[in-house]
């Protein structure tokens, strides 16, 4: 899954990153290059939806969710 930024957002990031030292900039460049290579080698569609796969009944799942809730103490 990829995020898409507007040019305005990219410009803001770039202005922030220009203040990094050269070693950090080079490391960031290498990491970005690696991410491009892995994206080309592994073009996966990330599905963030689909059927729930579980052996429990819906009532059991609901009961477990309710048991795991934690009350917020002020």
What's the helix and strand layout?
Layout: H1 7-17, H2 22-41, H3 58-68
The succession of helices and strands, N to C, reads: HHH
- Subunit arrangement of the protein: single chain
Please state the average pLDDT score.
Answer: 82
Cα-atom radius of gyration: 22 Å
Form type:
elongated
Which structural class best describes the helix and strand composition?
mainly alpha
- Count the strands? 0
Uncertain spans, ≥5 residues at pLDDT below 50?
A: none
β-strand percent reads under 5%
- Main sheet makeup: none
Fold and architecture overview:
With 74 residues, the chain is mainly α. The protein contains 3 helices and no strands. It has helices at 7-17, 22-41, 58-68. It is elongated, with a radius of gyration of 22 Å. It starts with 6 loop residues before the first helix and ends in a 6-residue tail after the last helix.
Keywords:
mainly alpha; 74 residues; 3 helices; single chain
Brief summary of the model shown:
This protein has 74 residues and is mostly helical. Helices cover 57% and strands 0% of the residues.
């Amino acid at each position: 899954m990829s995020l898409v930024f507007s040019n305005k957002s990219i410009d803001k990031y770039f202005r922030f990153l220009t203040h990094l030292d050269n070693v950090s900039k080079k490391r960031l460049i290498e990491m970005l290059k690696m991410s491009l290579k892995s994206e080309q080698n592994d073009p996966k569609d990330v599905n963030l939806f689909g059927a729930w796969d579980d052996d429990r009944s819906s009532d059991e799942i609901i009961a477990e969710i309710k048991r795991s809730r934690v009350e917020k103490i002020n």
